[in-house]
Specification:
Length: about 375
């Protein structure tokens, strides 16, 4: 077998290529009953045990029929995964019942209620893991059963499972995009409807886009996410929102008194930048500013970090990435006050121009 054909076969066997990780169109909808499904599609149902028990069977009747799944299988599966705990039950055995599936067409996964270092009532961190492990179909549907107050955290967790950047796969643009449709069933008794409203769906879609954008910036290594690349991401968001960013960069920062940011980034090939995005609402009297730290890589400069502490420093721009994502979502959803996003972008590099520990730096405050 030739090297070319062998390489081709290895590529075909790659999980990331099969799953088409990057080319995903994510969409949140009100109700799944109107969605066109075939027996080749896949449905993933996620929820805590107490929430799965409260899912109205009528909400799934149409979906089960489209996927050609016996209705009694669903009822039996819920009883298996979420049994009524009795006094003589073995807690360990009950804890192992976390998932069940019907020929990979319909998977049900319970979210563990155990406490962990990531403890939060929504258990959103587990949702990301479950979605990553169970979504393989080109037409994937996800249904999350939860209380309404946890829905935003759950929507963010689902979005995080579909990255926009990964170097583990070939982003083959010729492939058809995977369609991932997500909906919620609220289990609160006080909710008028078990399905989200139009306003909530708009919120989930905006948050999903912002989470994926933020994750893309943080996931991308500095070689591909320099201060220039980050500025382009800001400009892309500004263009979509109909705004124009203000940019101060390079020597201009020093001339205008921004000595702190200038000195941190002056040794890098790509100059440091201060970028401001503003969304002004006529008649608004309140001004809100979000400031994000955007160090695209932090070597420590001449006070260089150790090998163990330097790995992962591409994530030091997470503050600015988070502000960009939040600003995008807030403005898109009609934030009513004057909102400003300030991005302090720099690469703390080692070089002849790097600032020295004994240097005196004058900050914008004058100190």
């Amino acid at each position: 077998m030739s090297e070319v054909s062998l390489e081709s076969k290895i590529s075909d066997l790659s999980f990331a290529t099969k799953a088409n990780v990057l080319n995903v169109k994510l969409n949140f909808v009100k109700n799944l009953n109107d969605k066109t499904l075939t027996k080749n599609d896949s449905l993933l149902l996620i929820g805590k045990s107490k929430d799965l028990k409260l899912v109205p069977k009528a909400q799934l009747t149409s979906i089960l029929s489209k996927l050609e799944i016996p209705a009694n299988w669903y009822s039996e599966s819920i009883n298996y995964l979420c049994p009524e705990k009795k006094a003589n039950d073995d807690g360990a055995k009950l804890a192992n019942r976390t998932s069940i599936s019907w020929l990979n067409r319909f998977s049900i996964n319970t979210i563990s209620a155990k406490c962990s270092r990531y403890n939060a009532p929504s258990r959103a961190h587990l949702i990301t893991k479950i979605v990553k492990s169970n979504c393989f179909s080109d037409n994937q549907t996800i249904l999350v059963a939860c209380e309404r107050r946890y829905s935003i955290a759950c929507a963010s967790a689902v979005a995080r499972a579909f990255p926009l950047y990964s170097s583990k796969t070939n982003n083959n643009e010729s492939k058809n995009p995977r369609n991932v449709t997500v909906s919620f069933i609220y289990t609160d008794n006080e909710c008028k409807s078990p399905n989200p409203s139009d306003e909530e769906i708009a919120c989930y879609n905006a948050i999903g886009e912002s989470v994926r954008l933020t994750a893309k910036i943080v996931d991308t290594p500095c070689a591909e996410m320099t201060t220039d690349h980050f500025l382009q991401e800001i400009k892309n968001v500004a263009k979509e929102l109909g705004l124009e960013p203000m940019v101060i960069e390079g020597e201009e920062l020093n001339k205008r008194g921004f000595g702190g940011l200038y000195n941190v980034g002056k040794a890098a090939i790509n100059p440091p930048k201060l970028v401001v995005l503003s969304n002004i609402k006529s008649g608004s009297k309140r001004n809100i500013a979000w400031v994000g730290k955007g160090i695209v890589y932090d070597t420590g400069g001449l006070c260089i970090k150790s090998r163990a502490n330097m790995c992962g420093m591409k994530e030091d721009c997470g503050g600015a990435a988070g502000v960009l994502g939040a600003f995008y979502a807030a403005v898109k959803l009609g934030f009513e006050d004057n909102l400003h996003a300030v991005f302090c972008l720099a690469e703390n590099a080692v070089g002849p121009n790097a600032y020295r520990p004994d240097d005196i730096i004058k900050l914008y405050s004058g100190k």
